[in-house]
Amino acid sequence: MKKYGLFLFLFFFSLHCNAISPWSGIGVAYFNCHYPEMRDTAYELQIYDSCFTQKILTITSSNINLDDNLSLIEFADETFGFCITSIQGNAIKIIISEENEVIQYGWIKKNDNIIGCCLWSDLIPQSKNVFPLNNHNGISEIQFFKSPKGEVLDMTIPIMKELWYDYRNEVIKKYDCDIIPTGNSNNDGWMQVDVSIPHDEGEEVFECHRIRCWIRYINENGCPLVWFHTRD
Q1: Which segments of the chain does DSSP mark as H helices, in order?
Q2: Contact 32, 114 (CB under 8 A)
Q3: Is 153 exposed, middle or buried (0-12, 13-18, 19+ CB in 10 A)?
């Protein structure tokens, strides 16, 4: 089921021509009425230039998903927001759109009554499972460590026979395992995980071997090195 969840995530993104990559920033800004629970509330969000002297546009919570000119990211099941690239005091820099590799930025003010913000450093360790974002020679790879900044853990994990789609919608092969966060992470971008071998295909009777270790899940800029399934 997880493989199909990833496929649906990527398929939906292919339909949204201006979808931005979540790994382009450090987190997501969203309407409070959309997450963690969807509420029938109408909010307006004002987006400004970097000096907050000129309004670029106004977004309403009721039609944010209908505007094809916006570049949104899905960070929960059918829940979308703007990619955050930096936070300075009360100012949040977001990506508004991306077209022909030209990115348009905007700035919003912190307003807890309207807008919520979540950094990937907080959200990813609480996800059910993760997968690496890199793709070397058609194989998705990740390194496992005995401890943060410690010795590389020598593990033999078979490659899955069936093909997957990576975050760029390219066909890859991946390791036959699940990478499950334990919820334990540190401020240096390291996260503790349980590596479940083999990959869980959703069968009722499932036997696996689990190894507890550490991975680097965000880089020094706060951008993610692994991603998670936004849909089951």
Answers
A1: 2-15, 120-123
A2: yes
A3: middle
